[in-house]
Structures are given as C-alpha cells and as structure tokens.
Write the structure tokens for this entry.
Amino acid sequence: MVKTYRPNRLSEALRIREQENVIVLAGGTDLMVRNRSWSGTLPAFQQDVLFIGHLEELKRIKKEGGLIVLGASCTLAQIMHDWRVPEYIKLPLAQMASPAIRNVATIGGNICNASPAGDTLPMLYALNASLQLNTGQGSRIVNIQDFITGPGRTGLQDDEILTEIRIPIADFNRQYYKKAGLRKANAISKVSFFAVADCRHDRIREVRIALGAVAPTPVRSREGEAILAGIETKARLDAFPDLKACYEKLLSPIDDVRSTKKYRHKTALLILEDFLGQGLEGG
Ligand SMILES: Cc1cc2nc3c(=O)[nH]c(=O)nc-3n(C[C@H](O)[C@H](O)[C@H](O)COP(=O)(O)OP(=O)(O)OC[C@H]3O[C@@H](n4cnc5c(N)ncnc54)[C@H](O)[C@@H]3O)c2cc1C
C-alpha cells in the first residue's frame, strides 16, 4: 500500500522529497495513465506519492526583469487565461488535450514528463526558457534543453522539485504553431512546430523555430535560424538547400502507434515550407 503526502507549503514538500522515496504528482494526467489499473479499480502506484498541484507557491505567474515566470503547478488553462502571458506562449497550450484536461494538467508536468511529443516543449526551446529546480537546501537554474536528456528522461534529481519556468519576453510580430495529430482534441502530436519571428519591411530580422515529435527530444537549429535572418519573408524552402539540409539533419523520427517516420519527416518539412510562406505573411 502506498503512502500519500499532501503538504500545505512548498518547504514541507521539499522536506518530504528529501527524506522519503516519493514520486511527485501535480495534475496527474500523465501519472494516472502511466499507473492505470483495471477499469473501475484504483491506479497502481509503485511508489509513495507527493501531491504538489495545489501548492500556492507553485501556482504563481509574475513578470520580473524581462521574464515571465510561471509556477510549475500552473495549469495550462490558468496560463491561457492570464493577461500577463504573451499570446505566443499560449498558442501551443490552446491545442493541447481538451478543456477538462487543461484545467488540471500543469506546465511543470509536461516538462518533467519529457515526452518527445510534449507540446509545451518546442515553445520553451524556441523561447530560451530556463527552469528553477529546488531542494530543501537551495536551488539551481538550468536551460530547458540541458534539462531534457532523452525521451522521458530529465536531469531532475531525486530530492528536487521543478518550481519555476522562466521565459525571456521579446517583441515578435509573427507567431506560428502547427500540430499534426489524429483529431482536434485529445490528440498526441505526430509532429509539432513552433516559431516566432520579428519581420520588418518583408524581411526576417530574427526567427526562432523548434519542432517536436521528430527526434528523441525537441530540436532547434541555430544554424538554420542564422540563414533565415535577413532573407525575404516569402522564401521557398527549395531556394535554400543549406537551410533545408540544416533541418533535415535534425530529423530522426520513429515509427510508432501514432505515425510513421516517413510521414513525420515529410510533414515537418512541409510545415517549415508553410511557415516560410504563409506563416511569415502580414502581422
Ligand atoms: C486525454 C489526454 C490528452 C492529452 N493531450 C496532450 C497533448 O495534446 N499534448 C501534450 O503535450 N500532452 C498531452 N497529455 C499529457 C499530459 O496531460 C501533459 O503532459 C500534462 O501537462 C502533464 O501535467 P500533469 O500536471 O498532469 O503531470 P503529472 O502526471 O502530475 O506528472 C507528470 C510527470 O512530471 C513529474 N512532475 C510533475 N510536476 C513536477 C514538478 N513540479 N517537479 C518535478 N517533477 C514533476 C511527475 O513526477 C511525472 O513524472 C494528455 C493527457 C491525457 C490524459
């Protein structure tokens, strides 16, 4: 029989995390599926459970020195409805799961689950997000791409809790998000593509692009983004073989129940093409 802990304060949660062998549960939308049992019976957790989804300290959203700071237990719905959060951060959240799931699923859970198809991840990669990880003794900050180490793998230590997601705010006049899935709601991505850009006089000044579900972790090409800076907004991918090559070499999708590697590879490049054409138009 597993024990459950529901502390009232983050400090108490950190102490329990340090002293007991617990798994952290925020919204539980990944963990309840991962530990599901027969229909109508209780989920079968193998480890004691530490609930953190209710902790006020982890549910705050603030603007601080050019950053938007999201508490790890902020639900997707909470972030989507907060006026301080830039619209481009909300783009992928609006296409995740369904309203009911978005009311309980947290951003911290999506990060720590580290699925290659995790839909907040390309956005966080493109926006250079960093993460604050706390123990009872102190904290450390780590870049998202250094934290996610493989499919379902992160650098989270046994005594740590992800407490904050820090995202630098910048001026982008183009935002673009496409998710290829089986249906509109409750579909896990076959491919996802997030991009923001700053364009002036039909030229790209700066662009950031990241893709999900096409490799063991989300991918971003700084080389590709450097090629794109300065070019006209209605570029065709074929006109830039170097650019196409940059992205092609990052794509290493797999065949699985949701899709094939061929589909994922082709779709990723088609979405890139669409972004360069339609996605950068107007603003
Ligand atoms: C029907 C359905 C549809 C879904 N659709 C999508 C979708 O479209 N896109 C998508 O990306 N995902 C989707 N998901 C997956 C899931 O909802 C998300 O990944 C969600 O953001 C997970 O958050 P959570 O709070 O529920 O995580 P939990 O299940 O509570 O935790 C997930 C993992 O993160 C760890 N964890 C959570 N918070 C912390 C923390 N603060 N510090 C350290 N570790 C932590 C847990 O220990 C666990 O390993 C779907 C799930 C369901 C059931």
